Amino acid sequence: MTQWGSGLSEVRDILPSLRQTLVETPVEGKTFSLFGPTTDDYYRAVAGLADRLLQTLPDPRELLRLVRETARSRRRLRKLARGLPADGFAGLLVRGAGEVLETFTKSVTSHLEALPLRSRLDRTLTMSREQYHLAMLEIELMNRVNAEPFRATDKKLAFLPHCLKERRDVCRSEQEGVDYVCRGCSRECWINGISKLLRLHDITPYIWMEANLAGLFRKTDTGSLGVVGVACVPELIRGMRLCMRHHVPVLGLPLNANRCARWMGEFCDNSVNLTVLAKLVSTR
Questions:
Q1: For residue range 144-157, what is the model confidence (pLDDT) as tens digits?
Q2: Pairing of strands 179-181, 174-176
Q3: Which residues contact 255 (CB under 8 A, 6 or more apart)?
Q4: What is the Cα–Cα distance from 103 to 149, expressed in whole angstroms?
Q5: Distance between CA 93 and CA 67 in Å, rounded?
Q6: DSSP secondary structure string, 30-52?
Q7: Dihedral over Cα of 80, 241, 262, 253: its sign
Q8: Residue range 154-170, pLDDT digits in tens
């Protein structure tokens, strides 16, 4: 009990320090940005949306199943968004999500219109605006469903995107165990700050460079393993679904925008909401 209290004190002490060093400067992504004007606005919006839907459909797992099922067909989603057909709860789901989350996905349409033909079979790059909204909701629901099972696991790993590195050309991270590990070479590096926070919660952080999650799960007792993922919305939703298919409790935090070279042509500064991350992985 004393040890747990000490850890909680460390978390309280480190957050103000990290927030002073790692500032969430508003940025625009290729398709989405969680700033509205602060990222707290996004997290309030998506949590409120989930709360309202759960008043109608109280089972979060059933709501999660329906969200996934509805998100599969972009053609059907477009019809539901326009109110055609009047498809009961699915229609209310799509239109409600759009009304709440459209302010965070303003650039999706222009991105899709500008995509070259060679990229139009890439499901990550071609997610529709409606699919973004349902993915954001799905991440929120998976975090709720997996919160307690995750905390009960014996071994917890986190996978962080290399695009959050502050010094990409001189990064001192090294391969160790599952993937690359941060060596704390820069206080201004988001990977460094996030890694410190996660370690206080007994979560081992990795920079996701080479790890094969499906292969890792096949070699691990997944009943004792929990995973935290940080990525842009399209990559995060894919990774979280993979974890759940392997019965691994997973928690996910979206980047504040999608700004890596895959989307922007070069790496651009990015961030996450540290307060939300701390609450997400908290032992209580």
A1: 999 999 999 999 99
A2: antiparallel
A3: 29, 161, 163, 164, 230, 231, 232, 233, 236, 270, 271, 272
A4: 33
A5: 8
A6: SS-B--SSSHHHHHHHHHHHHHH
A7: positive
A8: 999 999 999 998 766 67
Kindly report the number of other CB atoms within 10 A of residue 1's CB atom.
5
CB distance 272 to 197 below 8 Å: no
Q: Kindly give, in sequence order, each residue whose CB lies less than 8 Å from that of residue 103, ignoring residues fewer than 6 positions away.
A: 36
As a whole number of angstroms, the distance between CA 170 and CA 156 comes to: 28
Range of the domain at 241: 2-280
pLDDT digits (tens, 9 = 90+) for 247-277: 999 999 999 999 999 999 999 999 999 999 9
| Closest to 245 in 3D by CA, of 220, 214, 211, 215 | 214
Contact 260, 232 (CB under 8 A): yes
Contact 181, 173 (CB under 8 A): yes
With beta carbons less than 8 A apart as the criterion, state whether 182 and 203 touch: no
Rounded distance between C-alpha atoms, residue 182 and residue 37, angstroms: 31
Number of structural domains found in the chain: 1
The pair phi, psi for residue 62, each rounded to 5°, is -70, -40
Q: Is the dihedral of CA 136, 140, 142, 147 positive or negative?
A: positive
| DSSP 8-state symbol, 119 | G
In order, the DSSP letters of 170-232 are T---EEETTEEE-----TT-HHHHHHHHHHHTT-EEEEESS--HHHHHHTS-GGGEEEEEEE-
Q: List beta partners, residue 208.
A: 161
Is residue 257 within 8 A of residue 28, CB to CB? The reply is yes
Q: Please, which contacts does 3-8 make with residues 24 or more away whose CB atoms are closer than 8 Å?
A: 4/283, 7/200, 7/201, 7/283, 8/283
